[in-house]
Design a protein that fits this description.
heterodimer, A: alpha+beta, 4-stranded antiparallel beta sheet, 26 helices, 17 strands, about 15% strand, B: alpha/beta, Rossmann fold, Alpha-Beta Plaits, 6-stranded mixed beta sheet, 12 helices, about 35% helix, about 30% strand
């Protein structure tokens, strides 16, 4: 007969057996939480001027707020300690004999040990949280918000603890040796992350059209994947807050709510698996590597194949994309890992190549995966959806009219990201024709190392004009599939198709943030500039701003791809955009830094008659040339080169020439452009630069003869317009 | 040494038990019946499968095939059956840094019938300090403690794996007398595994011999002792010797000079009656040791037992 309250007695027994575990946990948390809180509060008291927030805010939003990151890490480490110390007796034959001969159901024994492990974390952890709150109360900074945040803080730490704890218990139940258990726990905890990394790298290395868009969500079927995503969400839960007195990053636990169910499900699933393994585990498994002989081949396959591919990818990365090295790395790791796994399974080095049939099976699987990726057996690169499957298509013509944009949280968004989010072309036949053509052509940008001689490379470079476009196929079922293609604009048909895509009004509207911006967000300050002059305009009236944007929109809609490729902007138009949320760039660990506005700059082409005319009415002339009478001199830097026979190496002599002649200055000024104007179409008309010389300084005369230098280091000569005397000087 | 309470009723039954560890066949088709109230000895060389069999009997290991029942209840994963069993392994587990008192508390959680008063009483009798750390105990002291814990758990069955090894002769006798006391006072059935047959001779009622995973034989010692005897006699006439051999159920016969040493099956009185009918010069029945009985029995079935267990 067994006693009625055996479950609780077993928990008590377990606590007595490993009382060191909660004691260590208590001490570590005491140092990490209570003592560090006291130290911080003391520092804040002594150096209050260094902090932009109060101690109460610190306790609420930092210590029990963003500090949850530390609690999560602590919870994970503690979980491993509690799980291993609670179940490592399964690896001792003596203890297994003792416990398994007792009149207790294995399920009851498991439940008691499992719960005991959780309590060994929870009790000291909660005690320390209570002490911290008492410290807060003693310092007069305790608030109900701090209490609520402390509860959330403990809750999320517990969630992470449970997920890691369940998996580690499963690892210990699956194995019969402490070292193997720890390795197994490491693998199981991070397996989804490893698989994600391998998958991403295989796709990126082998599929030329593969592109990762948006936030890459790591697979979360193992705890570290889910915890990684939680950590990202924790970072995203900080919202800057500012009043006249304080400024700080408020922490919002509400944003983490979506993680509760996944964590609970994960803990439950792995907990259930742990129980299953525990109950089914044979007692004789103590001391063996793997408790279940039948599981060995499965485990081997699940480890050897990903490990081999991962090492193969590492070799490929080191040797810059060499497929040969990928195969070698994969093969080498496969052989080593297969042997190591067998040695571990049998604890016998002579068993390294024992299970040849299974080794061959794994080799075949690995080879199959390599073949699928190498030869694109599944047609990833050639995939283009049928028109009937398509609801719309997001398009980004990379490097063409890139604009700065900050999202509603103030975070920088790349031009490509913005376009793919906002462009949705429908019924544009050119897009899909271009996609099918690009998918069929499978063009790749090559560099000189891909050619036998430099002349061959030059010929290749001369005959092709490669550009990148990214398409987002919006399928009827709500999924968007992204592909990146290389297209050759020297191909007349491709040029025509791309021109048609660019000409689509929806595309132009979608790629230009100012046309999509709420007018109330556009601040009155507007900046107009050409190559040499600029003006700040205060368009306080909303109607005036709307007028300017409308004028610009009309011009912009007339712009063609050929216009961009053949002309340089003559100036730019900058709008200040107010941000709904403050941008929080934390330049110091103590005080957040804020920006209220940011500027969106847009090119002004000579064809933009409406904009130019409206600007003129406000007093700014985009066509105003450099007043040469006010210029003292222009310095031009460049080099003379001595080219070797093979054309590969060139010896250069850099030098600077100063031009003071007014006529020469005028001619030079008419042939210049600068990088700030070239940025919108650099990839599409870079050929117009004269790469042998550039103007680095224009020195202006002032009325009182004081000289002021402007270091325009990025003036470039337009190749065909470079004055002959400059060309001669740099021959 | 049995108590007579419910004797003859078979309480532990193992039928066609097989157990392998990987490619090693530890136990092969073992069938054993252990009667209530008898002391069952399990003899065998190292690696014969004694410990594996006991671990299966105690519910630690699950047999690959076959059934084990205790009081008609399957033992594996059955607390109702296991609550009547106390298993003392050859390397008994004690909690880290535990004292005998801690271990008593530990076992009392599992066995509700654990007799704490008797435990401390027996500890005193064995001169074991209840507050001393067990990890400072000698091997023999740990064995004594294990037996005391097992006895005080008050289970019907006690499975002892090499328990008598490491005990000094005095303690061995003390343990045997405790067993004897238990057998007479309550429903108690110990199963004792050992590789030394002499250890078990004076305590076991029934013995099973294991060899290479299988049971060679299982016999009731009393029955065997009553049915096999060695007769030492000198007959007047050498021709009588041939006639006597024909009259008796001879197991083994040996002659040293005029002295005949004959191992014979049968009741003692019947044998002596037949020997005396030849009016021997000298005749007497010699007691057979357990060892001799087994040598004789196993030789009959074709085994050279001396090579197996001694």
């Amino acid at each position: 007969m067994t006693s009625k309250n055996l479950f609780f007695k077993l928990i008590k027994q377990d606590w007595k057996k490993r009382i060191w575990c909660p004691i260590i946990i208590f001490i570590v948390y005491f140092i990490a939480m209570d003592i560090s809180l006291l130290m911080r509060l003391d520092t804040m008291r002594q150096y209050s001027d260094r902090y932009s927030y109060t101690s109460a805010i610190f306790l609420e939003h930092y210590f029990f707020g963003s500090g949850v990151e530390g609690a999560i890490v602590g919870g994970c480490l503690t979980a491993i300690l509690c799980a291993v110390s609670g179940f490592c007796w399964l690896h001792s034959k003596t203890q297994v004999d003792a416990y398994n001969s007792m009149p207790v159901k294995r399920t009851l024994m498991f439940a008691s040990k499992f719960l005991s492990g959780i309590l060994q974390f929870l009790v000291p952890f909660m005690l320390n949280i209570a002490i911290c709150l008492l410290i807060g109360a003693a310092n007069g900074i305790f608030t109900m918000q701090a209490l609520a945040n402390a509860v959330c803080y403990a809750f999320y730490a517990l969630l992470c603890f449970l997920a890691v704890y369940s998996v580690t218990v499963m690892a210990v139940s699956l194995t019969g040796n402490m070292i193997i258990s720890l390795i197994a726990a490491g693998v199981l905890l991070s397996y989804s992350v490893i698989i994600f990394v391998i998958k991403e790298n295989l796709f990126n290395e082998f599929f030329m059209t593969c592109i990762s868009m948006g936030e890459q969500k790591v697979y979360s079927f193992s705890p570290l994947g889910l915890i990684g995503r939680l950590m990202n969400a924790v970072n995203g839960s900080k919202i800057s807050y500012r009043t006249a007195e304080v400024s700080y990053k408020a922490f919002n636990y509400g944003a983490l709510g979506g993680f509760v169910l996944p964590f609970i499900l994960q803990a439950f699933n792995y907990g259930a698996l742990s129980l299953l393994f525990y109950v089914k585990r044979p007692s004789e498994a103590a001391g063996r590597a793997i408790a279940f002989r039948r599981a060995e081949p499965v485990i081997k396959t699940l480890i050897v194949i990903p490990a081999s591919l991962l090492i193969g990818l590492c070799f490929m990365e080191i040797i810059e994309g060499s497929f040969g090295w990928f195969v070698f790395g994969t093969f080498l790791c496969f052989v080593i890992m297969s042997a190591v796994m067998e040695i571990i399974f049998h604890f016998d080095i002579r068993a390294a190549f024992k299970n040849k049939r299974h080794m061959l099976f794994n080799a075949a699987c690995t080879a199959l995966i390599v073949i699928i990726f190498k030869y694109d057996v599944l047609g990833y690169d050639t995939y283009v959806p049928l028109d009937t499957q398509l609801e719309g298509c997001a398009v980004s013509i990379d490097g063409l009219l890139d604009c700065d944009y900050r999202d509603e949280d103030g975070h920088y968004t790349s031009a490509r990201e913005y376009r793919l989010k906002n462009v949705n072309l429908k019924d544009n036949a050119a897009v899909m024709e271009l996609a099918r053509k690009a998918a069929a052509q499978k063009l790749q940008v090559k560099d000189s190392s891909d050619f036998d001689t430099y002349e061959m490379y030059e010929e290749y470079a001369r005959d092709s004009e490669f550009h990148s476009i990214v398409l987002g196929y919006k399928l009827a079922r709500g999924k968007t599939i992204y592909r990146q293609y290389i297209i050759d604009l020297n191909d007349a048909d491709t040029h025509r198709l791309l021109s048609e895509v660019f000409a689509d009004e929806d595309y132009k509207l979608g790629i230009t943030p100012i046309f999509n911006e709420d007018i109330s967000n556009v601040v009155g300050e507007t900046y107009l500039s050409n190559l040499f002059y600029n003006m700040k305009l205060d368009l306080g009236e909303e109607e005036k701003r709307r007028q300017l944007i409308e004028a610009y929109r009309q011009d912009y809609m007339q712009l063609t791809l050929d216009d961009i490729m053949n002309t340089m902007p003559i100036g730019k138009l900058g709008f200040e955009i107010g941000m709904e949320h403050l941008v929080d760039v934390e330049y110091s660990w103590m005080t957040p830094y804020y920006e209220d506005e940011y500027r969106q700059n847009y090119p002004v082409y000579p064809q933009f008659t409406n904009t130019i005319s409206l600007a003129k009415s406000y007093g700014f002339d985009y066509n105003k040339e450099l007043d040469v009478e006010n210029v003292e001199y222009i310095e031009v830097s460049g080099y003379k080169s001595t080219t070797h026979g093979d054309g590969a190496d060139a010896q250069t002599d850099s030098f600077t020439i100063t031009y003071t002649d007014k006529e020469q200055i005028r001619q030079i000024s008419e042939a210049l452009t600068d990088s700030s104007l070239a940025q919108w179409s650099h990839d599409y008309n870079s050929y117009i630069y004269n790469d042998k010389c550039s103007a680095i300084m224009i020195e202006y005369k002032h009325d009182n003869n004081d000289k002021v230098s402007f270091n325009y280091t990025s003036y470039y000569f337009i190749k065909d317009e470079t004055p002959e005397f400059v060309v001669d000087d740099f021959k | 040494m049995h108590n007579g309470i419910g004797k003859e009723k078979i309480m532990i039954t193992a039928t066609n038990i097989n157990k392998s560890f990987g490619s090693i066949e530890a136990v092969r088709d073992i069938s054993v019946n252990i009667k209530n109230g008898e002391v069952f000895g399990l003899i065998g060389t190292n690696g014969a499968g004694k410990s594996t069999f006991l671990r299966m009997l105690s519910g630690v290991l699950k047999p690959d095939s076959g059934t084990i029942t205790i009081d008609d209840k399957p033992v594996y994963e059955n607390p109702a059956a296991k609550s009547d069993v106390f298993y003392i392994s050859d390397d008994q587990y004690f909690l880290p840094n535990a004292t005998p008192a801690d271990m008593a508390k530990f076992y009392s959680d599992y066995y509700v019938g654990f007799d704490m008063v008797r435990f401390y009483d027996m500890l005193a009798k064995f001169s074991l300090d209840k507050r001393r750390k067990i990890n400072t105990f000698s091997k023999g002291m740990k064995k004594q403690l294990s037996v005391i814990l097992g006895i005080c758990a008050n289970t019907k069955y006690m499975l002892c794996d090499e328990t008598f090894d490491g005990l000094d002769p005095v303690m061995r006798q003390a343990v045997k007398s405790i067993f004897a006391g238990e057998l007479t006072s309550r429903d108690f059935t110990p199963v004792i595994a050992s590789h030394n047959l002499r250890e078990l001779e004076d305590i076991c009622d029934c013995v099973g011999i294991l060899h290479q995973g299988g049971v060679l034989m299982q016999k009731d010692l009393e029955e065997m002792k009553l049915n096999i005897h060695t007769v030492q006699c000198v007959l007047k006439n050498p021709d009588d010797e041939k006639q006597l051999v024909q009259l008796l159920n001879i197991v083994k016969s040996e002659k040293r000079g005029s002295l005949n040493l004959i191992t014979v099956r049968g009741k003692k009185d019947e044998i002596m009656q037949r020997v005396n009918s030849f009016e021997p010069v000298f005749a007497e029945i010699l007691p057979l040791s357990l060892e001799e009985i087994f040598i004789s029995e196993t030789e009959v079935v074709g085994y050279d037992i001396k090579k197996l267990i001694f």
